[in-house]
Specification:
Layout lengths: L2 H15 L31 E3 L2 E3 L6 E5 L6 E6 L3 H18 L4 H17 L1 H12 L3 H21 L6 E3 L7 E8 L2 E5 L7 H13 L2 E5 L5 H13 L7 E3 L7 H10 L3 E7 L2 H13 L3 E5 L4 E5 L5 H13 L9 E7 L3 H13 L19 H16 L3 E4 L14 E4 L6 H4 L6 E7 L2 H8 L4 E2 L1 E5 L3 H10 L4 E4 L14 E2 L2 E2 L4 H6 L2 E8 L5
Parallel strand pairs: 7-8, 7-10, 8-9, 10-11, 12-13, 12-18, 13-16, 15-16, 18-19
Antiparallel strand pairs: 1-2, 3-4, 5-6, 6-22, 11-21, 14-15, 17-20
Helix pairs in contact: 1-4, 2-8, 3-5, 3-6, 3-7, 4-5, 4-7, 5-6, 8-9, 10-11
This protein binds succinic acid.
Succinic acid binds next to loops.
Length: 524
């Protein structure tokens, strides 16, 4: 991490940490495992992991390097956690659960609310950190901070509405009711594309429900995760309730195995690729653990001939090129009705020409680099495959002169549903345009994928919209709208796009079991 960024992070966060000197209103919660060394308050975005309430190095001082996404230069190094730290974190979380789960939803909500406020007070520095690690433009990082903090605020409030229900009893001498209870320790495995929001979307729900959490952030973005842990601690989150275990790509599989197999972990929540999700599901099945999987997508973006093409192009820009196309709800297969195809393509290529590609930290940048060279090579492979099979470049289609992992925003026409860019997740700034003629045909193409996360439909024919929305095999649909993600709405997919929902009131119940109580012996 650059010296400048580090000093900014420290300067802005240090005053908040003073809060920790005051005793938490919840009182001391857990003891700290003796294997952890004490942490330094002076170091806010430092190399230490946060393990069961301790800021500590990994065993043997092992560290890994965090790289700048543009050119792969080293930003800094961080503790490379492994099994010893994971074991300590799970034990700490289990111990902390005994107390945290017994606090009231209102008390937990107050901590989450303070964490929310601290995030918003430190919006700029968090945004800089997200940009440094992920490469996304600053305006997108700022939006992410607000989105991320919003989950804390939402679940702070929603936790107080985790109602059970009274059951009309089947016998007159019994009272029957069902109460939701927190699951226990939840392991949260989070991605690099939303280094803050995917943590708060999971942790906000888990903590509000009364669970404790062990977080394994992506190896590309550990500093944002650790900064969030500093702020959570400053907000009064008791020791051990939340651990953050950065670990390298090579340590990640064994960390995943430990977390999925550990008998004290009762929930696995993962956001990332379908391939990894399937492996985690297999591991979690052995202990019959609750799981939430937010996996890949191949979102169809359908534009009918009755659509407002201008609005569709605006939506296409927002949903395809957000974070250089690296979100799982990014539209991927542009299914455009033959009658509006020419209009759509020419307006889209004009809008794409307005992108300013550059480093995320430069204020004029509207599209940053891809996360690394592998991501860039994947986009190149998709473009090459499409051109070999008859597609044509409308704009872009090549690396950017900035070098590194910068790529031109690209539009391809004459794509067919069987090309690699229409069947594999691209995760890059490539819009693949396929032409269709009928509703039946477009639904068949849209549903031909094993994924079913999001879909977008542009049409002004109301009956047609209803038919298409009902026919799409996906978890989320934007109708004449591409910005669908919000804390209040259920986020998640069907088929191989995942299990469970995040955000909304559904997100909270992913961290709770229902206990049915039959209270007998009430006869006089
Ligand atoms: C994701 O890409 O995993 C999340 C996107 C969102 O929350 O909008």
């Amino acid at each position: 991490m650059s010296r400048l960024l580090l000093s900014q992070v420290r300067r802005l966060l240090v005053p908040q940490i003073g809060l920790l000197a005051q005793e938490s209103y919840l009182g001391p919660m857990t003891s700290v495992p003796s294997r952890c060394s004490s942490f330094s308050w002076a170091t806010l975005v430092g190399p230490e992991a946060h393990v069961a309430g301790c800021w500590c190095e990994a065993k043997g001082g092992d560290r890994f390097e965090v790289l700048d996404p543009g050119w792969g230069r080293t930003l800094g190094s961080v503790a490379n956690c492994g099994s010893p730290e994971a074991e300590a974190a799970v034990l700490g979380a289990h111990e902390a659960f005994q107390t945290w789960s017994k606090t009231t939803a209102k008390e937990r909500g107050r901590v989450l609310q303070r964490w929310y406020s601290l995030m918003m007070e430190n919006e700029d520095v968090l945004a800089e950190l997200i940009t440094a690690e992920s490469g996304k433009p600053l305006f997108e990082s700022r939006a992410e901070v607000a989105y991320a903090a919003g989950f804390l605020q939402w679940f702070a409030e929603e936790g107080r509405r985790a109602y059970g229900h009274v059951i009309p009893a089947s016998r007159s001498d019994c009272l029957m009711f069902a109460v939701p209870q927190p699951l226990g320790v939840a392991a949260l495995i989070t991605p690099w594309n939303f280094p803050a929001a995917m943590i708060t979307r999971k942790a906000g729900a888990a903590l509000a429900a009364g669970c404790t959490v062990v977080i394994k952030p992506a190896e590309d973005t550990p500093f944002t995760a650790l900064a969030l842990a500093r702020l959570a601690e400053a907000a009064g989150l008791p020791s051990g309730v939340m651990s953050v275990l950065p670990c390298s790509r090579s340590n990640a599989p064994s960390m995943g195995v430990l977390l999925c197999r550990h008998p004290l972990v009762r929930k696995i929540s993962f956001t990332g690729s379908t391939a990894t999700g399937k492996e985690l599901l297999r591991l979690a099945a052995q202990g019959v653990k609750r799981v939430s999987m937010e996996l890949g997508g191949l979102a169809p973006f359908i534009v009918f001939d009755s659509a407002d093409v201008g609005a569709a192009v605006k939506g296409a820009i927002a949903s395809k090129f957000r974070f250089s196309g690296q979100t799982c709800v990014c539209s991927q297969r542009f299914l455009i009705h033959r009658r509006v195809q020419e209009d759509f393509l020419s307006s889209l290529s004009k809008a794409v020409a307005d992108f300013r590609v550059g480093r995320g930290s430069e204020p004029e940048t509207t599209m940053g680099p891809l996360i690394n060279s592998h991501a860039l090579e994947k986009v190149e492979r998709h473009v090459k495959d499409a051109l070999e099979h008859g597609a044509n470049v409308v704009c872009g289609g090549k690396r950017h002169s900035l070098g590194g992992s910068f790529y031109h925003p690209t539009v391809l026409a004459d794509v067919t549903p069987t090309m690699a860019c229409a069947t594999e997740e691209i995760f890059g700034p490539l819009a693949a345009v396929i032409t269709f003629d009928t509703e039946e045909e477009v639904l068949a193409i849209a549903n031909s994928s094993p994924f079913g996360l999001a879909a977008y439909v542009y049409s002004r024919d109301l009956a047609q919209v209803v038919r298409i929305v009902q026919g799409l095999d996906v978890g989320m649909v934007g109708v004449n709208e591409a910005a669908i993600s919000t804390v209040e709405a259920p986020f998640g997919g069907v088929k191989e796009s995942g299990l469970g929902r995040e955000g909304s009131f559904h997100g909270l119940h992913e961290y709770m079991n229902i206990k049915y109580v039959c209270y007998g012996g009430l006869q006089n």
